[in-house]
Amino acid sequence: MEGHIAADLYGEALQQSSIESFPTSAADYALNDAQDNGSDDWYNEDGDSCEWESERIRNQFVTVGYREGLMAGQEASAQDGFNIGFKQSVSAGYNLGIVRGVTSALNCLPNELKERLVETEEERDKLKQLHKSVNSLSTSDALKLFHEEQTRTPAMQTENPKPDCTQISDGVLKNYYKELQSLINETPAIEACLDMMKQ
């Protein structure tokens, strides 16, 4: 019943609008073409706006692509720099960690056990001093020292192509490790323990 009421009320209006909006014969098509004044872009008053819009979108995509390319290049460059820095610093950091670990472990031992491992008082004092020195060095200070050593080393190599061992002073970080190695070489009990850790 409701369908009949809607058809009765709106039927005539729908039929008239469909007849007016859609031409049904060739004469109606010709009449519509004549009303358009022969222009092909009856759907758009300004034909240049399509070209302008496509140009704007193309420029936008070019800009976005350019930015993404720059960002990818920067990330690759940063990653390369990180890889180079890591290769240069990993051994220095590892050696500093060994010095801190060994001296801290020896410092925590009871005095009787320290006396058995390190025979002379002089060597125990050196290990204690090395422990204080290494633990007073913060991570940021160690990083600064490493950076200073790295910037100083190439300058020395360019000044003296064949450097004399007495002229080059090793960096502080390298000295810590060398000092620990010399102390360990003098104490065979500690050396045996370190050899077991390496395996």
UniProtKB/TrEMBL annotation:
Q: Does this UniProt record's set of keywords contain NAD?
A: no
Keywords attached to this Swiss-Prot or TrEMBL record, sorted alphabetically, are:
Coiled coil, Cytoplasm, Nucleus
The residues covered by the Essential protein Yae1 N-terminal domain are 65-102
User: Is Hydrolase there in the keyword field?
Assistant: no
Any Pfam family hit: Yae1_N
Subcellular localization, per the record?
Answer: Cytoplasm; Nucleus
Name the coiled-coil region(s): 110-137
Annotated Gene Ontology cellular components are: cytoplasm; nucleus
Provide the protein name: Essential protein Yae1 N-terminal domain-containing protein
